[in-house]
Amino acid sequence: KPSSQADGPSKLIETPVHAQKPLGQSSNKDQFVNAASLMALAHNMILQGLNSICRHASQVFPKDYRAFIGYAYCRYQVIQAHHDCEETVLFPIIKQQAGGKGIMNENIEQHRAFKAGLEAYKLYLLFLSTAPQRFSRAHLDRIVDDLAPPLCEHPTRKTLYLLSLSR
């Protein structure tokens, strides 16, 4: 069982493959169950990154601000690249395989729901890259508190949506 420190503040998602069949046992899952599981894993990496920022922000010494800010910005880049790839590569493939115009629109709307929060996060980190001494954990916490709810709701909803496409 994961430690409580590893569990938060954002809760991780159980993969559908694991939920349906314990590790090591063979299964005959279709492409959508497998895709939902891979998506859950990808989002868990994103959520763990966000969790690590939240957990460690209070422990960063001024001499380490620049490195922490760089790490936090890398986490932004991971989130942005992941969602850009979903919209330009993955969603069109799912649309084609599931056969439905607009089938991924809800997921695109979920991306839009956290776009402003993600932009605020990025802009704060870019500002800090030239003035690391201005780092404020309280300010970063406020930004993450605004960003986290839609960002954390999205992967659970997407995983369930991909499962709903299973035949």
UniProtKB/TrEMBL annotation:
Pfam family name, one: Hemerythrin
InterPro entries documented for this protein: Dimeric_xanthone_biosynth (IPR053206), Hemerythrin-like (IPR012312)
All residue ranges annotated as the Hemerythrin-like domain in the record: 37-129
Superkingdom of origin: Eukaryota
Region (Disordered): 1-25
Name assigned to this protein: Hemerythrin-like domain-containing protein
